[in-house]
C-alpha cells in the first residue's frame, strides 16, 4: 500500500513538472549573413573573409559568400538578411548595386566592415559614404606604431577589453559623421603631418542608417592585424551588434551641438 502511494506521488510530481515547464522551446531562427568581398587585394579581403566567415558560422549564422557586387542586385533577397559584411576597397559600384545595398540597410539589415573594405570602398558614391558614416582620406606615415583608446568601456562591443592597446598598421585619418556613436579613438602625434598633432580620430563607431545598424572600425589593414585580440574582438562583436544579436540602437548624438550652446545669442537691441 505504501509503495503504491509513493509511486502515485512520483507520477503526479512528474506530471506537475511537465505542466509547469510547458512545451519545449523551439530554437530561434538562424541568423543569415552575406559576406561580399573583392576590390584591392592589398587589404587581403579573402584572408579576412577566411577569419570572420567561419566565426559567424560558429555563432549560428547561415553565411553566404560572394566575390561580386552583383550580389546586391536582388533587393528582395537582401531584405531577408540579418547582416551584410562589405569588404571591397577602392572599387566602382553601379547605381543599382549601391541603391539596393542602401535600401536593404534602410529597411533594417545590419551592415558591418572594417578599414578600407567599408571605409574606402567607393570613393565616388557619396550616399554610400553617408550610410557608412565616414570616408578614409589619409594615413600619414603609412604603416606605423600607434595606440587605440577605448572611449566607451561599458558598450557590449568594447566591454572588458584593454582600455588602450597598440597597433602597427595604418592609422586612418577620416572624414566622419558627427552623429556617430564613437567607441574608440586614436590620437595623431604629428610626426608624419605636423599640422594634425594632437588630433583625436574615431577608430570604432556605430550608427543607424534608416532602420539598419551600421558598425565600422578603421582597424584591419591586413589579416595579420586581427592577431591583436582587441582588434579581432571588436569586429566580431560589431558584427553581432549590427545583426541585432546584442546591444541597443545607438544614442542620437551630435558632437558639434554643444558649440551652439556655449554662447547665448546677443539680446536684440
The major beta sheet can be summarized as:
9 strands, mixed
Count of strand segments: 11
Low-confidence parts = 1-27
Fill in the CATH topology: Rossmann fold
User: What fraction, in percent, of the residue positions are helical?
Assistant: 25-40%
Q: In the residues, how many domains can be counted?
A: 1
Q: Strand pairing plus helix content: what structural class?
A: alpha/beta
Strand order of the largest sheet: 2-1-3-4-11-10-9-6-7
CATH architecture, by name, is 3-Layer(aba) Sandwich
Mean pLDDT: 90
Notes on the structure:
By secondary structure, this protein is of the alpha/beta class. The protein has one domain (32-253): Rossmann fold, CATH 3.40.50. 30% of the residues lie in helices and 27% in strands. It is globular. It starts with a helix and ends in an 8-residue tail after the last helix.
Concise overview:
This protein is of the alpha/beta class and 269 residues long. The chain has helices at residues 2-21, 45-58, 75-78, 95-107, 115-119, 126-132, 229-242, 257-261; strands at residues 32-39, 62-66, 83-89, 110-114, 134-138, 143-150, 164-170, 173-176, 181-187, 200-209, 212-217.
Keywords, separated by commas or semicolons:
disordered N terminus; two-stranded antiparallel ribbon; alpha/beta; 269 residues; 9-stranded mixed beta sheet; single chain; Rossmann fold; 8 helices
Write the layout of secondary structure elements.
Elements: H1 2-21, E1 32-39, H2 45-58, E2 62-66, H3 75-78, E3 83-89, H4 95-107, E4 110-114, H5 115-119, H6 126-132, E5 134-138, E6 143-150, E7 164-170, E8 173-176, E9 181-187, E10 200-209, E11 212-217, H7 229-242, H8 257-261
Parallel strand pairs: 1-2, 1-3, 3-4, 4-11
Antiparallel strand pairs: 5-8, 6-7, 6-9, 9-10, 10-11
Amino acid at each position: 500500500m505504501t509503495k503504491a502511494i509513493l509511486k502515485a506521488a512520483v507520477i503526479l510530481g512528474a506530471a506537475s513538472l511537465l505542466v509547469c515547464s510547458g512545451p519545449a522551446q523551439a530554437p530561434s531562427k538562424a541568423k543569415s549573413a552575406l559576406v561580399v568581398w573583392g576590390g584591392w587585394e592589398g587589404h587581403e579581403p579573402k584572408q579576412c573573409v577566411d577569419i570572420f566567415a567561419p566565426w559567424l558560422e560558429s555563432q549560428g549564422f547561415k553565411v553566404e559568400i560572394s566575390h561580386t557586387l552583383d550580389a546586391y542586385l536582388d533587393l528582395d533577397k537582401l531584405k531577408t538578411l540579418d547582416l551584410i559584411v562589405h569588404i571591397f576597397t577602392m572599387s566602382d559600384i553601379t547605381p543599382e548595386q549601391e541603391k539596393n545595398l542602401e535600401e536593404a540597410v534602410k529597411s533594417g539589415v545590419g551592415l558591418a566592415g572594417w578599414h578600407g573594405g567599408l571605409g574606402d570602398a567607393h570613393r565616388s558614391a557619396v550616399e554610400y559614404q553617408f550610410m557608412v558614416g565616414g570616408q578614409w582620406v589619409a594615413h600619414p606615415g603609412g604603416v606605423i606604431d600607434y595606440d587605440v583608446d577605448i572611449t566607451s568601456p561599458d558598450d557590449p562591443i568594447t566591454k572588458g577589453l584593454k582600455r588602450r592597446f597598440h597597433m602597427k598598421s595604418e592609422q586612418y585619418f577620416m572624414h566622419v559623421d558627427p552623429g556617430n556613436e564613437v567607441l574608440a579613438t586614436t590620437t595623431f602625434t604629428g610626426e608624419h603631418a605636423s599640422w594634425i598633432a594632437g588630433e583625436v580620430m574615431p577608430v570604432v563607431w556605430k550608427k543607424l542608417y534608416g532602420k539598419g545598424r551600421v558598425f565600422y572600425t578603421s582597424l584591419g589593414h591586413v589579416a595579420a592585424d586581427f592577431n591583436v585580440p582587441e582588434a579581432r574582438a571588436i569586429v566580431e562583436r560589431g558584427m553581432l551588434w549590427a545583426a541585432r544579436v546584442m546591444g541597443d540602437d545607438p544614442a542620437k548624438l551630435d558632437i558639434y551641438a554643444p558649440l551652439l550652446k556655449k554662447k547665448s545669442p546677443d539680446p536684440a537691441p
